[in-house]
Amino acid sequence: MNKVQLGSSDLHVTPICLGTMTFGEQVCQADSHDILDRSLALGINFIDTAEMYAVPARAETFGATETIVGNWLAKNPGARNSLVLASKVAGPSRGMDWIRKGSQDLTAKDIEGACNDSLRRLQTDVIDLYQIHWPARNTPAFGAVYFDPSKEKPVSSIEVQLQALSGLVKAGKVRAIGLSNETPYGVSEFVRLADQHGLARVATVQNAYCLVNRTVENGLDELMHRTGVSLLAYSPLAFGLLTGKYDLSGIDGPDAPAEGRIAKFESVRKQRWGRPEALAAARRYNALAIANGMTPTQLALAFCYTKWQVASTIIGVTSVAQLDQAVLAWGTKLSAEVLAEIDKIRWEIRDPAL
Q: Any idea which residues carry the catalytic annotation?
């Protein structure tokens, strides 16, 4: 895997990134460290985490994932210099009152404090890529379809947040900055203000992107291309829908895999990935994969791995075997005929897990 540059930053990463949100909930520390060891052995140099992880988020596991990653880094001090380490500061509370006492804002002080806490948990002096997990302002996100102006509320401005992030870069605590779950407007404003005021420039946007959610291609991809911002694609397997493991049982059926995220966690089932339409769409893509001699996982990952829009695909796993399977899919080529069938399905069903 050749490394790719993230935006105009000096960060160069593998096109596969190890996501860690399962660490501390579905995966214990010992198994998490085995996955990190294997990831390093496979040549992956990019690790993504967040202060609010593990997922599903709850007070008892807030910061647990960063702590697990930090303990691994402490055991493997030689690995740090070869890795690009990314983390995220949570946006305003979405029912998580244990994060900044349920604040509905994300202030400059919040950003600085969260970064310091993450540095401590990660046991490192610098975070290579520091991202805002979701916007502070009113936006349609995590399954919401429409922007609603009536939900506007006073929050810290994009400029205030960008100033805070730039301060972290100047202080040497962060090398580059990014966004997550952002809209075209948000990305354009962060870029415009950075260029106007000589502040740190956003290098990346981490958004959902997979066969059942291609909303990135509804204009965000053009903006990112023209402004030199890189896409980090998360949930390429749609929380397991695109592995085929729910095709026969469904999400709530008695034979549903008990350890699957959607089946195991009710809070996840209530999100976009648990929609009946999302499962129905996944079944069609999974059938297309099998009809063309691939596993559903191969098709779904190859779709992300080969799209020009994607700089790096974030894979979340619960075992070394799953990690190996995800990396094995690298190099899978999709024929023009298969790509045409994928687009045909999308034309009919659009993005049911947006």
A: 53
